Amino acid sequence: MALDAQAKAVLELMAAAGLPPIEQTTPQQVRELRASMGASFGALAGNVPEVAHVEDRTVAGVPVRVYWPQSVSPLPILVYYHGGGWVLLDIETYDAALRALTMASGCIVASVEYRLAPENPYPAPLDDCYAATKYIAENAHEFGADASRLAVGGDSAGGNLAAAVTLLARERGGPDIHFQLLIYPATDFSADTGSIQEFADGHFLTRAGMRWFWQQYAVDAEEGRNHLVSPILARDLSGLPPAFVITAECDVLRDQGEAYAQRLEESGVPVRLKRYDGAIHGFFNMAGLLDTGKEAMADAGAMLWNTLGARAAAGGVY
């Protein structure tokens, strides 16, 4: 299928902005460029419904922003790790999208402000995500949450961190994670798949750009072979939480996200995989401009509700 017409229009707008290729910039330069476009980035999420309550907290030394869809408790909780190649973006730029996900899912959403590379390369971002998740699981009552309905999720680099957190939780004996939402996750440091070659340029996230991001996060190829950096290289994926894996057809990360879903399924993990035709990397955060973004947001919310929230409804919590 060809590139979606709406996605093509977004790419034309980005090209007209005249931003330099990310691999030709320093992290500080690209952060400054993105900061100057912060309001525009947030606006991509479109009209966002009101949530019941929002609060910034610090847990286990890690800043988090918590969204509640309603005051009734206990509720399921999703711990979310933002994208941005481990280098860019923050809980502020994800505010609109996560408000939408909160209301679409009926879950409390805790957005984690993990340390960024290259100043804080692996394992610092993962350590922050794991520490925040562990605290939330062990102190769910502080959030009006039900620890037995804990999920993790993220997009792109955040999807990588979500997958790694589930592996780390299994290795360390907790916390008990019941679902993972992986949105076009980066799963393989050394991947050179068909989608990387086909969409190497001109589709928002480029092959060279993704390589640049990987190099900020992992020091070298040897570190990239660590299964907590490249989750697809884990010898055993059995016993991990059920997953919903979202991929975009016109995305360099498409094949490695789908390969990870296949490996999970082969390991006996319940998986739903959905590829969004004609979509580009980042479309989940672009519901204001892309119908595929609206669809993915609704699908993610429904999957979270059906997996975690419906049990509460059956028990009369809602």
Q: How are the SSEs placed, and which strands pair?
A:
Elements: H1 5-17, H2 27-36, H3 38-43, E1 53-59, E2 62-68, E3 75-81, H4 95-105, E4 108-112, H5 124-138, E5 145-155, H6 157-172, E6 179-183, H7 194-198, H8 207-217, H9 221-224, E7 243-250, H10 254-266, E8 271-280, H11 291-314
Parallel strand pairs: 3-4, 3-5, 5-6, 6-7, 7-8
Antiparallel strand pairs: 1-2, 2-4
Helix pairs in contact: 4-11, 5-6
Structural commentary:
With 318 residues, the chain is of the alpha/beta class. It has a single domain, classed as Rossmann fold (3-Layer(aba) Sandwich), CATH 3.40.50.1820. Helix content is 40%, strand content 19%. The protein has an 8-stranded mixed β-sheet with strand order 1-2-4-3-5-6-7-8, with helices on both faces. The longest helix has 24 residues, at 291-314. The protein starts with a helix and ends with a helix.
CATH 2nd-level architecture: 3-Layer(aba) Sandwich
What about the largest sheet?
8 strands, mixed
Give the count of helical stretches: 11
Distance between the termini: 41 Å
The CATH homology group name: Alpha/Beta hydrolase fold, catalytic domain
Strand order of the largest sheet: 1-2-4-3-5-6-7-8
Q: How many runs of DSSP E, i.e. beta strands?
A: 8
Shape: globular
Low-confidence stretches: 314-318
How do the SSEs run, as a string of H and E? HHHEEEHEHEHEHHHEHEH
Quote the CATH topology: Rossmann fold
